[in-house]
Predict the 3D structure of the following.
Amino acid sequence: MAQVKIFSEAYNTPESIDDLVARVNTFLLTLSPGDLVTIEYKFLESNYRTHTQNVLFATLLYGPDVVGGSTVGSSILDSISSPVQDLTGLRNVEIADRAEKQVRLVEDEGGLYRFDQQAVGVDTPPAGPIVPSDSPITGRWFKTSAAISSHNVLSGIQGGAAGDYQHLTAAELTAISDNSVHRTSDGTDHTFINQDVRVAATPQFAGLGLGGAPGASAICQMDSTTKGFLPPRMTPTQRDAIVSPATGLLVFNTTGNGYNFYTGANWRQLINTPVATLTVGGVAFATASSMIETDAANFFWDNTTKRFGVGTATPNATLDVTGNSPGNVGGFPAGALQITSPTDAVNASAVITGHNSYQGNKQLWYLGSSSSSNDNITLINRQNGNLALATNDTTRVTIQSTGNVEINEYIKLGSGAPVIKMKKLTGTAGAEGSTNDIVHELVREKVLGMEVWVTNTSGNRVPPVFTSLPEHEYDVFISATIVRIQLTTTNSADIAGGAITILLTYEN
């Protein structure tokens, strides 16, 4: 508790409290810490102007009165001195008139300033210290909304404005009791806490932001570009001694050098591996608890061509498999692609299947083993179509849907038949009686058969030695190099100039 002495309608030009003449309502008011009282005072100068100023007095928030008197009034009101017109007048107050804790009114701004003989600081009006014109080492004027100095504990006087402040010495700061509230010079309250705090009430804010405003979905957000988050650090023994740890509780294990979190049943360590450096073209594989990335040597993805390489970083197809050969086929190294059926069962024989997406993804064929020993290989066309083998973009062998086999587009008649080929020759017949030679480029002794047709003027194909109609006769023979078409002299006019077609069958 403290007492303030109130003077109302005090006149004369006061140099000190003794010069005030109390006209009415002089009384003492008992205040509790934090109480505020507004006082109006009036006085006359030689020009008989009346000055009225509301003065806000604040009692102490902490600590005793600096003077040690029984009332705050005796430590404040006794120091009121003559007003000055402006800050220049305040700077020019003579040193003899600058008493410790003297208060003066600056009329132009209607504010009260107080002098502190031990204070130091730069001149930063109107809120900061005002340096007297004689520039002393110590001694500054403070507007009453600013701290006086670090050597006193008086609360301030603030003319015509709201708020108050507290200024404590270092010793008094040490003596602050735990869990007490103190107000600083900017008017904000600060709580000194030195024990565990539990807030049971519903928070009156949407989120807590440190270093910036929190995001709308964050209950707590910390922003910094120069500092990090440091959780509690402890040994495993200290960690295990935590009573009833909450699920998700996070600590730093100083023994294992890693973060530990509580799952609700036991403590687990977060992955303590270096930050991954991804490789361009590398392929990542996910496990149940982590992700593994290859080095682009064994598996490679080309995002430009959309191709995947196995054993190569330059895939030439949608799937390109390159590697060491597992063996030889026909005396030459086999490829590196190996396809294995899903089980060892005999009925698990189809290891490769082909589908036609244009026909509703209908299965066309499959390749697999065809016997109980799994030694034989079968390629099956599931639909009613031919099965062909080709080299150099040319079909060499065709198995028809009827079962016939064509080799170079010709049919093999059976197991006892020779391996044969056929060749087609063409030309144009000359005039009646002409000789027409067409080169065959075959070994004459390998030729097994020959069929010849010459087209007549009606478009019909006429075989040699055809005598049923006049003007259609010609003869044929084969030499080592040519096939000769000889039109007769007097009976071949209807085939003169006709197209010649020759089909040779020869042994391979």
